[in-house]
Amino acid sequence: MADPVKNFAKAEVLTACDASAVTFSVAEGFGARFPNPSGDGAYNVTWWNSTDYPDPSDDPNREIARVTSRTADLFTVTRGQEGIAATTKNSAGKTYTIQLGFTKLTYDELVASTMVTGPTGYTGYTGYTGISGTIGVTGYTGYTGYTGYTGYTGYTGDAGATSTTPGPTGYTGYTGYTGETGAIGVTGYTGYTGDTGAASTVAGPTGYTGYTGYTGYTGDTGAAGAASTVTGPTGYTGFTGYTGYTGDTGAVSTTPGPTGYTGYTGYTGYTGADSTVTGPTGYTGYTGYTGDTGADSTVTGPTGYTGYTGFTGLAGGTMAWKGEWQTAVEYILDDAVENDGSSYICILAHTAGASSEPGIGGSWGTYWNLFALAGNVGATGYTGYTGYTGYTGAVSTVTGPTGYTGYTGYTGYTGLTGATGYTGYTGYTGKSGADSTVTGPTGYTGYTGLTGYTGYTGYTGYTGYTGLTGSTGYTGYTGYTGFTGMTGANSTVTGPTGYTGYTGLTGYTGYTGYTGYTGYTGYTGYTGNTGPAGGSSMIILSGAGGWPSTTSGCAAPAQTELATNHVDIKTLDFDKDSDEYAQWTLIMPDNWNGSTVTAKFYWTAIAGSPSETVTFGIQGRSYANDEALDQAWGTAQTAADTLITLNDLHVTSSTSAITFAGTPAANEMVQIRVYRDISEDTLAADAKLIAVMLDYGTV
Asked: Which pLDDT value is given to residue 423?
């Protein structure tokens, strides 16, 4: 939870405190200017010698204390906060002041509460694989010849048990005939291998492979005859049939044809009686499910780019977030609201109405400044293609299983709409205080704007299913096994062995079916909008936010009004007679890659002659934790420019690469020093520095 804030919370401390004191009182009635920790929560205050140092950053004994309790004007604190040691606050004749203002803890809590890493966009589904062209027809394999009959087995004695399919009753003494084998069910067709088509630009799904037909039932064996008392001659073994010729392979087609039907496998020798059972019809393939919407990504997207650092203003107020804008509500200075997706900050107190509605009302610009612009809606990803339905095989003369209907491919997910990143916040420009005889404290540097979210990347469509391979053709019937010869009667001499029957011809092998088409490869879904490209970013150092160096410093920030349109500018003025210096302190963003930076100088002059030149130089040093502050600067780089017209904005070219001394890294403190090099310029007047733009590399 962020610390509580309150505008104009500043009070004089009345109690003299040493470095260990934890309670003090403030001027009567001023305690009410501060939040009460009992209800609002604890908070940090800056505590310094305001007699000698109007600006707390100049007091070497300044410190930050955390207020844990307040009863009226009596405060209880914890000393030595944010790495700054507690010091004595009891020097005679000095006034010590506490102020609730912007500290590093405030910045860290603000970033922690607002900077959200955008999710990485989804990758679009990969589309379906396109159909491959058909493969040419494979020639017929010759039929397998019939298997020759086996010689008769001698007559068997009494008949065996009755078969469900009656075989002939054997003769007395002869072995009964073996019952015919039932018909083998037809094997399903193997789809023809289609001709190879011309190369497709989009691949489709491969067709499903058809089912092999069921093998028919084998008929019952006939009853066995009675045992014979004599052994008969063994019958001839039938000839083995010739193996049929394999047909020629068909030529390759240049255009895609439909998946051809698988030729019949040549019939094997005669089969027994037809089966009384018809093979079942093949199942129809399931229609593919439509895919679910993908789950949210578990991968954290890259951290957005850091926005430009806003111009530093004078000490400003604190933003008060009021949520969605509403009419008839009283808004005061620094109230912030959201309207129609954009954020706005109040610059003039008023009661809300139609004319002052932020971004819409006719006079909204009088009361509001745009704070963050709403992002655009990303593109919707394409829906993936529906997969092809597999081809149905040709009608068989013998009922076989029907091939599966190809699955319907999943419908590709629609890619998420990528969000356009938020525009980083521009730092607040502090309110201009009344003219003073002493220079007020330098305002805090504005917040570095949040980097916009990277738009979601759309899903890549699913890869389509590979189509089913065509049905495999039926296996030809197996030829009959020859009859076993009859057993002769018992003899005192062994009878001659019967001839072995010829082995029947081997039937032709049927055509190999066509391989089904390979499905088309679906289109790859569009990738969602990519967030802004990286590489470098910028930081702005305003003249109003810098201060003169103690040694050889330039003039303090001065405000100049241009007469005609009353445009006021804050500048650091560098004299023409000697080299003068100014400095800034900043914390480098966490996306800085620690490399060199370059600088441009924005300046003007109210005196001098056109064609006279001015030269600015810049150098810096980076500091890590527990590193001594009093160390040498890095090597300076300069940029020269020519005066064109008085009171015009002039922008120099970029300097050469500036290497900060130390061991530069993200989130380190960097001290910047800028100077005017009069030995290199001819401008016979003050050079008025408006701002410095630093360009740094990002990770």
From this structure: 46
